């Protein structure tokens, strides 16, 4: 996963955790606008999230944040 996407998702995780606590959930779509303005980046996130790590559509933001930090 490219660094730009990694930083973006970590930032979203930080906001979700700050607002809702460690139990906050996160969807891989959370990093993208409602319209598909960057299909290659979306496919990269999808591949990482679903194919590589076989995560559910929603995952705990704290878990996702830690995974991104561990696999930097």
| Residue-averaged pLDDT | 87
Low-confidence stretches: none
Beta-strand residue fraction: 5-15%
Main sheet: which strands, in order across? 1-2
CA-based shape: globular
The figure for the number of domains is: 1
The radius of gyration computed from the alpha-carbon positions, rounded to a whole number of angstroms, is 11 Å
Could you give the count of β-strands? 2
Class from secondary-structure proportions:
mainly alpha
Percentage of residues assigned to helices = 55-70%
Distance between the termini: 9 Å
The ordered string of helix (H) and strand (E) elements is: HEHEH
Tally of helical runs: 3
Core attributes:
72 residues, mainly alpha, two-stranded antiparallel sheet, 3 helices, 58% helix, 8% strand
Plain-language structure description:
- The chain is mainly alpha-helical and 72 residues long.
- The chain has one domain (3-70).
- It is built from 3 helices and 2 strands.
- It has helices at 3-20, 39-52, 61-70, and strands at residues 25-27, 58-60.
- A two-stranded antiparallel ribbon has the order 1-2.
- The protein is globular and about 30 Å long.
- InterPro entries: DUF6500 (IPR045448).
């Amino acid at each position: 996963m490219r660094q730009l996407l990694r930083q973006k998702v970590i930032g979203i995780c930080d906001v979700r955790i700050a607002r809702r606590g460690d139990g906050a959930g996160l969807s891989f779509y959370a990093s993208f606008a409602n319209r598909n303005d960057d299909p290659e980046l979306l496919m990269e996130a999808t591949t990482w999230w679903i194919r590589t790590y076989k995560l559910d559509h929603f995952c705990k933001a704290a878990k996702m944040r830690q995974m991104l930090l561990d696999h930097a």
